[in-house]
């Protein structure tokens, strides 16, 4: 029997964007006529894949209430936390009573505005029958070196190393419990790592290379280029 597939999106957007060195958090910088976060949320909302999108926003954030999209009926605002994982957990808690324990949650960085509907649907289609779930990831085209100081100590087999992107797709209850049980653990830099620490084996599916994270100043021009290529 076909179970009804319910997916929710969670967007951590409470970072300060230190590496961007801008006058405001990077999610509010202009990109192709909108702010970065407006692109990200429009793409999630426009995919038609989600019941609601829960966004974690810093409590001191003066920019968010100014955006029309903060009042979108399918957008829920939750308070951000100290680390990314705290923000994600807070957004998950804002879905308590709405999301079922076995519903899927796709966690996606606000700072990744080039996400395509194609990648969202690819991920959901390939992971919806999993017991655990997993993440979009990118293979490396370059040869990879293990380095000590500036000395190469080994060449790493490329087929075993992948770059973790978002969305990261997990069951609502399992992800909430994993983030609660690993709270404060500095090794938890993404959702998958929280599940890995508890012994689960998340999967990867290869995503598109244009799903970049805006991190440093040059990334805005690159994101604009990718957006032009996508239309
Ligand atoms: N994030 C969050 N809460 C935090 C820290 C980060 O919600 N306490 C979010 C960011 O807003 C971003 C995503 O997590 O959308 C990925 O984090 P990152 O790229 O590291 O963003 P920042 O932490 O803002 O940037 P930086 O590390 O350069 O300060
Ligand atoms: Mg950060």
UniProtKB/TrEMBL annotation:
The record marks 158, 213 as: Positions MEP for the nucleophilic attack. The record marks 19, 26 as: Transition state stabilizer. It comes from the Bacteria. The keyword Amino-acid biosynthesis does not apply. Keywords: Isoprene biosynthesis, Nucleotidyltransferase, Transferase. The keyword Metal-binding does not apply. PROSITE patterns: ISPD. Catalyzes the formation of 4-diphosphocytidyl-2-C-methyl-D-erythritol from CTP and 2-C-methyl-D-erythritol 4-phosphate (MEP). It comes from Methylomonas koyamae. One of its GO terms (molecular function) is 2-C-methyl-D-erythritol 4-phosphate cytidylyltransferase activity. It holds the Pfam family IspD. Pathway: Isoprenoid biosynthesis; isopentenyl diphosphate biosynthesis via DXP pathway; isopentenyl diphosphate from 1-deoxy-D-xylulose 5-phosphate: step 2/6. InterPro entries: IspD (IPR001228), IspD/TarI (IPR034683), IspD/TarI_cytidylyltransf_bact (IPR050088), ISPD_synthase_CS (IPR018294), Nucleotide-diphossugar_trans (IPR029044). It is an enzyme of class 2 (transferase). The gene is ispD. Its EC number is 2.7.7.60. This is 2-C-methyl-D-erythritol 4-phosphate cytidylyltransferase. GO terms for biological process: isopentenyl diphosphate biosynthetic process, methylerythritol 4-phosphate pathway.
């Amino acid at each position: 029997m076909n179970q009804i597939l319910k997916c929710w999106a969670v967007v951590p957007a409470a970072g300060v964007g230190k590496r961007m060195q801008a006058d405001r958090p990077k999610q509010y910088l202009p990109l192709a006529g909108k702010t970065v976060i407006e692109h990200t949320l429009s793409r999630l909302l426009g995919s038609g894949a989600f019941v609601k999108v829960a966004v974690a926003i810093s409590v001191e954030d003066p920019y968010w209430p100014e955006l029309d999209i903060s009042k979108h009926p399918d957008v829920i605002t939750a308070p951000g936390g100290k680390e990314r994982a705290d923000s994600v957990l807070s957004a998950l808690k804002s879905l308590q009573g709405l999301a079922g324990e076995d519903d899927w949650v796709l966690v996606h960085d606000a700072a990744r505005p080039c996400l395509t509907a194609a990648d969202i649907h690819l991920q959901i289609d390939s992971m919806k029958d999993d017991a655990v779930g997993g993440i979009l990831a990118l293979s490396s085209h370059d040869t990879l070196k293990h380095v000590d100081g500036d000395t190469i100590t080994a060449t790493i087999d490329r087929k075993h190393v992948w770059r973790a992107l978002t969305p990261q797709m997990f069951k609502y209850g399992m992800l909430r419990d994993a983030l609660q049980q690993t709270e404060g653990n500095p090794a938890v830099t993404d959702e998958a790592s929280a599940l890995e620490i508890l012994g689960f084996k998340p999967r990867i599916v290869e995503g598109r290379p244009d799903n970049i994270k805006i991190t440093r100043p040059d990334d805005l021009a690159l994101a604009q280029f990718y957006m032009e290529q996508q239309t």
